[in-house]
Specification:
Layout lengths: L4 E5 L4 H12 L5 E4 L7 H6 L8 E4 L2 E4 L2 H9 L11 H27 L3 H21 L12 H6 L6 H8 L3 H4 L1 H11 L2 H4 L5 H15 L3
Parallel strand pairs: 1-2
Antiparallel strand pairs: 1-3, 3-4
Helix pairs in contact: 1-3, 4-5
């Protein structure tokens, strides 16, 4: 049990992808336990009794739930590939953009593939506006973390697996709208710790089509 690391997760979760990337970047071995979100395991319900959501990181028998787990990973294994900036101000800005991605970007990309007609058009427009703000924050840096992957990069790069989905349903091109952001995400994906932690775009699209059919959107 000493220093044992277990990740309760679902392969499609962008929040879980972040933890997988962070663990891979730091070279931390862990046991991945895939959750059935329609029939959640007793371990998940016990580990996150408040929200009953994934991901949950269990370290030495102690659960760390949802978004705070990413910061936990960086603080516990801070001698390996640090993600958070050491400067307090820069760190505060990284947390601000994480909050922006969680509360705006991720919610909008869900709307793009779970709605249709005017709703998807509105969501797409707002989504593009949001990623343009992210691109402006990136500027000419290769990564949000500067010369290496940082906290914001790890938080944002799971959108790569969804590029085909929201380009298909939103009828736009991320590369055309935000070439610098697109290049940054592709640059992240070139790293093995990232590419092996993210699902294939076609696999994501296939599941999205199944969900849309079940929801009666098609």
């Amino acid at each position: 049990m000493a220093d044992e690391v277990v990740l309760l997760d679902y392969w499609l979760s962008p929040y879980g992808m972040r933890l997988r990337i962070a663990l891979a970047l730091k070279g931390i071995e862990y046991e991945f336990k895939e959750e059935n979100l329609s029939n959640k395991s007793p371990l998940l319900l016990q580990s996150n009794p408040v929200h009953k959501k994934i991901p949950v990181l269990i370290h030495s028998g102690k659960p760390i739930c949802e978004s705070v787990a990413l910061q936990y990973i960086d603080e516990v294994w801070n001698d390996k590939a640090p993600l958070f900036p050491s400067d307090p101000y820069v760190r505060s800005q990284a947390k601000f953009w994480l909050d922006f991605v969680d509360k705006k970007v991720i919610l909008l990309w869900r709307k793009i593939w779970t709605t249709k007609g005017e709703e998807v058009e509105a969501a797409t427009k707002e989504f593009i506006d949001c990623i343009k703000l992210l691109e402006a924050e990136l500027g000419d840096k290769p990564f949000y973390g500067g010369e290496t992957l940082g906290f914001v990069d790890v938080a944002l790069v799971p959108i790569y697996s969804w590029f085909y989905v929201y380009e298909k349903f939103g009828n736009f091109s991320v590369e055309r709208e935000c070439p610098k952001l697109f290049a940054c995400v592709k640059r992240c994906f070139e790293k093995e710790s990232v590419s092996k932690s993210l699902p294939d775009q076609d696999k994501v699209y296939s599941l999205v089509m199944e969900i849309r059919t079940k929801l009666g959107i098609e």
